[in-house]
TrEMBL record:
It comes from Cohnella abietis. Residues 550-643 form the Thiamine pyrophosphate enzyme TPP-binding domain. This is Pyruvate synthase. Residues 280-384 form the Pyruvate:ferredoxin oxidoreductase core domain. Gene3D superfamilies: 3.40.50.920, 3.40.50.970. CDD domains: TPP_PYR_PFOR_IOR-alpha_like. GO terms for molecular function: 4 iron, 4 sulfur cluster binding; oxidoreductase activity; thiamine pyrophosphate binding. The keyword 4Fe-4S applies. Signal peptide: none annotated. Belongs to the pyruvate:ferredoxin/flavodoxin oxidoreductase family. Residues 31-257 form the Pyruvate flavodoxin/ferredoxin oxidoreductase pyrimidine binding domain. It holds the Pfam family TPP_enzyme_C. GO terms for biological process: response to oxidative stress.
Amino acid sequence: MSIDIRKEMGLPGTVEQRIVYESGNEMAAYAAHQINYHVMGYFPISPSTEVAQFLDLMKANGQHDIVLIPADGEHGSAGVCYGASTAGGRVFNATSANGYLYMLEQMPVQSGTRFPMVMNLVCRSVSGPLDIHGDHSDLYFALNTGWPIVLCRDPQAVYDMNIIALKLAEDPEVRLPVLVASDGYFTSHQKRRVNTFAHREDVQKFVGEHPPEGFKHVLDRNNPITVGPYMNEPDYINNCYQQSQAMYRAEGVFDRIQKEYAELTGREYPILELYKMEDAEVAVFLLNSSAEIIKDVVDQLRAKGVKAGSISPNIIRPFPAKAITEALRNVKAVTVGDRSDSYGGHGGNMVIEVRAALQQFGNSTTKVISRIYGLGGKDFYAEDGLAMFEFAIDAMEKGFVQKPYDYHGITAGDPSKAPQRVLEPMKYEDLKTGLITVTQDEATGKINVRVPPLRSLTKKPKRIAPGHGACPGCGIFSGLELFFKGIEGDIVALFHTGCAMVVTTGYPYSAHKATYIHNLFQNGAATMSGVVEMFHERKRRGELDQYGLKDDFTFVMITGDGGMDIGMGPAIGAALRNHRMIILEYDNEGYMNTGAQLSYSTPMGHRTSTSNVGKHQGGKVFHHKDTAQIMAATNIPYVFTGSEASPVDLVKKGAKAQWYAQNVGMVYGKILITCPLNWLSEDKDGADIIDQAVNTCFFPLYEVEKGITTITYNPEEKGKRVPVGDWLKMMGKTKHLSKPEYAETLREFENEIERRWNMLKAKHENPYL
């Protein structure tokens, strides 16, 4: 990679600086903590999650005063940020990919009502299929939201642009929220030498006083305002025009601010980063991290006598059309690389806008080539950059563009290498064993389940094959398979995004031996609702007779890793509609698939990467969500909790769940499973930890059948109840709770367990509760 020594070493500036060696995510958090924002609303998603993690760790150590608000999903986090910004404070957020798309509805509201904030978009591929690596498919969705967008090629730029962005957002000529975009995993996790302000006071002096002069907010009782009014057509178009004018002004304001920043720090961020473009005849236009790599190729071609150059903007909203046209004035051919496709548009968004800019300013001679590259995080090497130049050189020499639009870096298909089925489909006869019997008492309507000794159920095939990529000691699959032992016959399974999904479906292989569906983190219940209703309608019309179905499928949605935070709304909707399906939640007490962030199921006081333990914070500060009770309140026919530490109980509940799902309606089940990696426990101790969680009454085993609660295991009656503290000592994430300074947190957690347990016992004793 071509290194800019001036940037790496730092030009002389007028402010004291220090050198750190950190990643892009760390530098976004570092800039935010120096600014000392009022509020950050957030929701974990890779690869941006680390920004909140680093800020929470600094918060635990007393390094800033930012209020960190964990939302129930990205849509909620965007709402938190919008509400906070209307209340007059400085607001910060970070997200990626599908998370950004989930909050997309809120983005034009924020800009259209002109409330400043700063959000980091750590760019990542958008589903589907699922890919968590870096491209610009999320960034391109941001282009029409009315937010100025600045770009970051390296961790140094992430730090600097986060500071510049706030000043830009609050400038009276702009007053718009600003997006700071960097490349996921390329920049977000790459460690580089970074020059920072040595003192936060200098950062705060540069960004200026808050609130800026003339800024209105909802907390000024002497000057009440109406935010987001209903507007008819003449007023609305005028509002949009004012917003448009503010956006175009942002280009000049950005240039002014970056020059002020350069005087302080010695680091410049011109509208366009031009590399050897003074006499260039061929050029390549790229965004962000790839633009650094291309400089090496420019040097190599220059050594061979080719007049090559590169262009990379530091801001793409507003799009610097005039500056780009000027830079290409004498260029004969330019290849524009887009790290996302505008499907059907004959090129990605950047090439479409470059072509439009040339047309707008009268350049009809520069030939433009479009190439889509690097999707799904596919690496961009110097040889790829050379290919980009070769497309331009070929056009220059021939006088025309042979292929104006194409993908670069694809692999030609070979029918002989098509993925082959590795696992044979399970046979119905192996799944319908008849070993488990479920009957309904005609007089009472009570469902009775009889299961044989568990050893006789081992002949039933596992529905998920061994060989998946779960961590050693992961409790997900032992818990799921135990539940599935109670299910007879064929299933259709849908998995929310989470560990269970990611580790079983690494293309081109799958560990699933039955039909499997994946959809977005929040929308599984709605998706499965559609599958269920389509099944019954097609069956009614006789369209499924050709497939030889012997009985109905059992439809099971698997969720976990926080899926019942972001997915709670659709789950409640499915419950209220009472679709004939099962939702099974594996509760590992956090967002483990993205790095052990807190979820609403994380218990109070427990350590996660966004509920750190330090001098100023002792783990999660609020209580865990009781999803089983929430779903019971929807009055679905059957709700249960289960544990692999009580295997017969879980198998019986699985069988009963199937009966209700096939004959009556919705079932919701919740099983507690261990996560040794993030609970900081020994692999071998998983079953014991789960058993103790049940015996403390933290995770009671019960069922709610047609509104009547029955405790299926009472440790008090068995003489097995243990103190909560004994259970917490078994996990590294909770060992701090035994220290005197966290005694109050432990006491509050114990009191809440006791309160919930006593309520459950009261429901058990009274069928009307």
